[in-house]
Amino acid sequence: MTLLNENERAARSSALHHDSVSYENGQLFIEEMSVGKIADAIPTPFYCYSAFTITNAYRLLADKLGASRTLICFAVKANSNVSVLRLLSGLGCGMDIVSGGELERAFAAGAPPSKIVFSGVGKTRAEISRALEVGIHQINVESPAELDVIRDIARSLGRRAPIAFRVNPDVDAKTHAKISTGKKGDKFGIPLEEIPELYARAEASAELDVVGLAVHIGSQLLDLSPYRVAYERLADLVKALRSCGHLVRRLDLGGGLGISYDFGAGPDVGAYAKIIEEAFNDIDCELTVEPGRWLVGPAGLLVTEVLYVKNTGNMATVIVDAAMNDLMRPSLYSAIHPVLPLQDINGGDSSTYQLVGPVCETSDVFGNYEGLPKLRAGARLAFGCAGAYGASMASTYNSRDLIAEVLVDGARFRVIRRRQTIEDLLTLEVERPWQASNTYADAATAL
């Protein structure tokens, strides 16, 4: 990947609706804060997010979609930090969750249950019970077996469960194979042809409030045409269900809007909104969309420091203190994030640098980069577009610290998740008393 020079970055930045990263006097800034000043206070590596960027992105999408008709629910899995969720909730955003833990995070952020949608193929009984007890907006049903479990739990609680059937429309999202969710054979959703029978069965159950349908075909979509195909199939299904006398009040259209990882503008949300309008303009339904990456991805930086530089073959390898456990996307998806030096030096080194982390895995590689300044130990860099699927996918592999997260608002910043150290982790591994199992002992004796 070739790094843009300062003038090229400035030109690109001016075209973006949600860009807050720039150079001032050769120093990298996020909003009005010098990233270097933050790094002086917070040990690297750490994540850093722009509140302005997130706010701008949400407002733009709400404006294009028409907030009065469409509920925007943030896909919490993209960035589950409570402060980020609180920022979005305060703007009027709902939450799309896929676990009980994400439900509790949404509550901690102040999100109202009436704006929470529960997706995901493997909801446990405890998670379903909790969702029904607090009265969330809807549960998206992923299988006939799950439908039966939801009905049984609703009956035991004396509640009526609001459900939508997640349709698998068999549409190729033209994205990475590991984040495609709407093709035949994917584990997500129910085949379109099975929906009418299930819909009728669910409507006959007093414990179930069948509110409509849901669809989500994948993540990081840059080509919008698969949305058009999926939404047309969904619209046809609505008409078929209504022709049989079924009520369809809501349509959950999923998320998946992609971002550009090379400083480009990404997909046109106005065109996205137009596809939705054209597909459903003659269908009177409440609409929900569930963006994740698009709202927060461009808002984030992963700030790191060079540890060592060494030669490997014909290439200089730069070892930084961030690793695959901090940012999984390069090793998991072969993704390449842009790299910005915290000090911009005109006329970059002609060398190609391979940036790698210190984790003991060959796959701990961020990519090959040209146009960076001469790199030495102690130099600081920032991986861009790191606000989504960065911290939320991080781990403590190799017993490394779970790194801090920082939120920037104008000319101020604060830590929104402190670094989780090895001392913190070891407190979770204090030995507890042994638990005897007579049942197991009896069974072993019988063998």
Automatic annotation (TrEMBL):
The modification N6-(pyridoxal phosphate)lysine is found at residue 77. Pyridoxal 5'-phosphate binds at residues 256, 290-293, 389. One of its GO terms (biological process) is lysine biosynthetic process via diaminopimelate. Residues 54-296 form the Orn/DAP/Arg decarboxylase 2 N-terminal domain. Residues 47-387 form the Orn/DAP/Arg decarboxylase 2 C-terminal domain. Its cofactor is pyridoxal 5'-phosphate. Substrate binds at residues 293, 329, 333, 361, 389. One of its GO terms (molecular function) is diaminopimelate decarboxylase activity. Keywords: Amino-acid biosynthesis, Decarboxylase, Lyase, Lysine biosynthesis, Pyridoxal phosphate. InterPro entries: Ala_racemase/Decarboxylase_C, DAP_deCOOHase_LysA, De-COase2_C, De-COase2_CS, De-COase2_N, De-COase2_pyr-phos_BS, Orn/DAP/Arg_de-COase, PLP-binding_barrel. It comes from the Bacteria. Pathway: Amino-acid biosynthesis; L-lysine biosynthesis via DAP pathway; L-lysine from DL-2,6-diaminopimelate: step 1/1. Belongs to the Orn/Lys/Arg decarboxylase class-II family. LysA subfamily. This is Diaminopimelate decarboxylase.
